[in-house]
Amino acid sequence: MSRDGDHGTALAALHALLQSGGLSTNAREVAEGLLKAMTSKTRLLIAGPESAGRDALANAICARAIPEVELFVADTPAAFDPSNADICIWCTATFSASEFQVWQKVPDRLKSLSFLVPVANTTTFSERLNDAQISYFQSIADSEFYGLFPIVLGAPPGAQNAELSSTLLREIVGMLSAQRAAAYVDAQSFLTSHRDKAAERGAAPNLAADTNQNANDQATQDAAQQALSVLAGYATDLTLEMAGDDSEALKQILTICSAAAEALAEAMQTHLGGAGVSSEFALLSEDARTAADNILLLSVEGGLSQTICAVTTLLQLRRELEMLDAA
Amino acid sequence: MNMAPPIPSAGPDDGLSASDRLLKSAVAGLDAFAQQMEPVKAAVLTAKNLGDDSSAKIAAQLEAKIEAFEPSVTMIGQIKSGKTSLVNCMIGHPDLLPTDVNPWTSVVTSLHMSPKPINAETRAQFCFFEENEWDRLIAGGGRIGELADRAGADEELAKIKAQVEQMRQKSKLRLGERFELLLGQQHDYGYFDHELVERYVCLGDDFDGSASEQQGRFADITRSADLFFHQSALPVRLCIRDTPGVNDTFMMREQITIRAIRDSRICVVVLSAHQALSSTDLALVRLISNVKSNEVIIFVNRVDELSEPSTQVVQIRDSIVETLAKIDGPKDAEIIFGSAIWAQGAMMGSFSRVPEASKAALMQLVNASEDASLQHQTTRSVLWELSGMPALYAAISNRIMHGEGQGLVRHIGARARNLLAGVQQADNLKAKAQIGEVSVQISESEISTAVATIKESSNTTLMAELNEAQTAFSIRLDRVHDSFLTRATDALLSHLEQFGDDEVWEYDPAGLRLLLRSSYQAYGKTVQSAFDRCVRQAAEEIGSLYQNALNLPIELFDIKVPPPLRVPPPVTLGQTIALDLKGTWWRNWWYKRRGYQSFATDFRKLIHAETIGVIQDLKSQHGDALREQAVQEAERFVCEQAEILLNTLSAPLLAKDGVDALFDRQTLIARDVELKQAIRSLEAIEA
Question: With contacts defined as CB-CB under 8 Å, which chain A residues touch B488?
Fold first, then answer.
């Protein structure tokens, strides 16, 4: 069966499960969240002070008519509402201190799904996008965005950087497809763990089971919160270290990442012995263990790309934990 | 300083030679340990004398364990570091082992020194390679042959095989056509001398007529030599293990040396002052980097060959510390400087045999020393002091005292304490039985059933916990292995995409070792906790059984649990793997590859084949061994406590039947005083 077919089947099963009335309150909320993630359009927000670039990108995206995407353009700083976006593109000429300040309000989850797009036009290209500028943007993108995509307005098709706008579109499409796939996997895992329970509950409503389920959800939530607090303990160190990009600073960042990942894996492991945490938490705990191993290997290697990879891995783990906590 | 030839000192009438007297002064630190053992020995003897047959049997086992205690020190070193000369001085026989051993030999020589005269028939034991070890060398060219084969380094492999064949032909000439029948055998002798040792350990390069026909006859195939001798200068037994170097042609020695390090708690790394630790000694540092820092001592030998030792020693020390920090070695290891030549001169009492340059170096050190007393000492004392031998033995003694020795004291102390408490309790019950008081409240069969249940449940619980730990350990190691292979292959691909295949790329396997080490440590902790829980639970249950049977407060039955299980260091991680070697064969491998996918696939296969052995060794040699140790130790503890309990509770029955000796009041009081005294002395040590 095709992925779309699978997707449709999972949607139908989720609907049926919700209608059966056999789900606990918490599980129902999770199911509704999943349904929403699988059916609602992705909200793509284009913002930033570089208005010509904003319009050019908005036009390009509209022209491609990417399915399942709802496009918003924040024309003014007041219209910039990160809480209402799934993906964000920030168009800028310099990424000034005031922009950095605005960007700090963006939740990490959205940062990890956003693109920094420095915009230049053909007349001033040599002044605006020299190597030093690109390396500055790269350092910002490394810590604050998913990726960096400089574009040159009015450049002939095929010219360097003009090409990147289509690369950016491909990235966005790829990200959307990954999100849909992740929502599908989450739905499948939810269906596997709740279908049987729901059937039992449907046949004979069982107050004890409901209480257990609530207790399990609570245990998972507590465990996720504790794991998040372990990570938060390292966040300050990491923010301080982020200031530099010389090899010593990278080494420091990798060392902190490695220690954070190890502590996280250990903390999550301690919750597995006791009863109560969900299978999702157990799976995530295994991921955290593998991630800690990988980050240690990366820290032995050293280097910029290894550092980016380590930080991204930790951010992904944090995001997964936040989802568990929210569920 | 008095540089006149020393006059042989008359010394006290202790029957020791002058050289033995020097040795005795150096091992003074071991006297403290021997003294600490005295009350333990006395307590065991009390239990043996005052206990019944069953208690005496356990006490005899403890005595045997004390008697057999033999701490050991493994000596490893750079080639030409003068390690064997140093070992000869350490054992008080400056000429015993041949110092010009040919690099082909792979013999580990264990020198077992006993403070008591040796009565055993065997004084020297030589073991030959097992058939499978020999086959591995002959068929595959040893570890290095395997590596060259995997890497497709055909020329290197052909060279290695030619060398092996040459060695085999030489062995045939020495030992006859069917020499391979000797493999796996062992030769024992009731004596040993220099010539006998040379026959098995030393190998002359060729039959050039200069060596006797017997010299080095068996050296090709000898794997280990054990020599047992009386050394009256020592207060306790001690074993010094001399290992072959590590950078041999076939990397056969590395495996042998790793085994020797595993067998000892203390490792002395001998370096030459001329070639102090550098990146070329990585293999050596890898071997010790998994051993705890405080179990490693670094001895920098041949300072007598330095032109200005007083200043050079400081520079060498700094350089060693820096190198160890850089390559993740044991950074807190103690560093001692000295000279085997000076130690030899002191032991033989012959200053004239010390080369002129060496004398000049000694003078330079004496003159630059802040220790003014050196100026007024005899030549012999100065030679001895600056040879580093007293400092080396002080460091060794200190580690024995606080490591293996302390372990023995605690282990025997706890067992003796439980045994004495059992004898004390039995006396008490006998006395009550004699006046007709019924003290045991439950029947013999009920006690037997309860003991059997405790044994059974303790064993079942421990086995279940250990099985779970071992499975988790195995899964963890496989995952680590897989993560490493994936990461290393990804890094390779990323390099190829960025730089192409013109530039040779290397990948540091330190990450794999770090992950494996931490996995093993986590497993070790789990096994330790399971063991600890098991013995505490059993002690508590046996205590409750005493309480129920005798209807007395549980505080009276304080059963001492054994000290925590020791987790041996994962020394197997020190073995060299392909990624550690950055030689010609690796470049050959690199330039033979075409296409990124071919690189990635072949690399993964090569590194998998190279590292899987380390994973398996860690699972079996370390993981299984630790598990086995936990099971045996827990079982011994539970059975011993059960035996003491059954024995104690049956005491009044025996007394009532009149089978056992009846004690009068005076005897009982005297026994009680003696038992209490022994228990108090054990408690004092424990405190």
Answer: 297
